[in-house]
Amino acid sequence: MAPDLQRLSEAAAGLFVELAGDAVDRRGRFAVALSGGSTPRRLYQLLAGAPWRQRVDWGCCHFFWGDERLVPPDHPDSNYRLARETLLDGLPLSPDQIHRVPVELGEPETVAAAYEEELRRFFGRGPAAGDKPLSYTLEEFPRFDLVLLGLGTDGHTASLFPGQVALEQRDRWAVATPPGRLPPPVDRITLTLPVLNAARIVVFLVAGADKTSVLREILEGESCLPAARVRPTQGELRWFVDR
Ligand code: 6PG
User: How many CA atoms lie within 13 A of 238 on its CB side?
Assistant: First the structure.
C-alpha cells in the first residue's frame, strides 16, 4: 500500500522496469497491455522520464491495450491518446511496436475482430476461430508479460462491466461491449477474461477514496464482480493501492 498516487506510481514504475528487463532477457521481448482511465497517467509519465526511461530496452517492448473506447484515436476519451501523450511519444519506438485498437474500422464487432487478428499475428494463432478448444489450456490464449488494469467503482475492469455477456466469453480474445454504467457512454473493445488470466502478471492500479468499498469487497474474496474474476491461471496478481 502506497501513501499516495505518486508513490504508488513510482512503485509500479519500478516493477515495470524489472518485468521488462526479465522478459527481454528470457524471451527477447516484453508484451504489455496498457490500462486506460486516469489512474495510470502518472505511471506513464514517470516511465517516459528519468530514471525509469533509461532502464528499459524500449526497442523490445510491444504495447497493446486492455481495452479501448470506440472514439477516434485523438479523442480526449481515447485510451490510446492517453498512453501516446504521456508515454509513447517520448520513447524510441517503431510503429510496429504499437498495437492500438483500430477504432477507425467502424462497427464494434469489426474493430474487435481486427484487434483479435492483430493479437493472433503477434502471439500466434491459437485455435482457428470456430475450432472448439478441447480444454481451456493456457496455450490457447496470448500470454502477456504484464497486464495493467484499473478498477471502476462498479467493480469493472478493462471494459468488462458487471452483468455483461462479455464476462462469459471463453473463446474470443477481444470483444465489443456496450457502454457500462460509468462514463464515457460509448461502445468499448476489451480483452476477455481468459486473456487477462493468461498473463504472467496482472497489476491493478487503484487510487482514490471512491474505490475503497469496491476494493474491500473484491479483496475480501467473495465477490463475483468482474475485477474479482481476474485470477491469473499460471501467473501473479498484484494490487498497487493508495492509502
Ligand atoms: C477504461 C479503463 C477502465 C479504468 C477504470 C478505472 O477504459 O475506462 O480501462 O477499466 O481502468 O474505469 O478508471 P480510473 O483510473 O479513471 O479510475
Answer: 18
* CB of 155 sitting under 6 A from ligand 1: no
User: Which cell goes with 43?
Assistant: 505511471
Residue 224 CB-density burial (10 A; 0-12 exposed, 13-18 middle, 19+ buried): exposed
pLDDT, averaged per 10 consecutive residues of the chain (243 residues), comes to 95 98 98 97 98 98 98 97 98 98 97 97 73 54 97 97 95 94 92 98 97 96 94 97 95
Q: Quote the cell numbers at residue 185.
A: 457512454
- Give the DSSP H/E element, type plus range, for residue 102: none
**Is the shortest distance between the CB of 190 and ligand 1 below 6 Å?**
no
| Distance of CA 162 from the midpoint of ligand 1 (Å) | 14
Q: How far apart are CA 73 and CA 189, in angstroms?
A: 13
Q: How far is CA 100 from CA 55, 60, 75, 103, 104, in A?
A: 24, 17, 14, 8, 11
Backbone torsions φ then ψ of 43, nearest 5 degrees = -60, -45
Tell whether ligand 1 has an atom less than 6 A from the beta carbon of residue 37: yes
- 26: which 3 cell numbers? 528470457
Q: Look up the pTM and report it.
A: 0.94
Written as nine digits, the cell of 162 is 458487471
Nearest CA to ligand 1 atom 13: 37
Radius of gyration for the chain, computed over Cα atoms and rounded to the nearest angstrom: 17
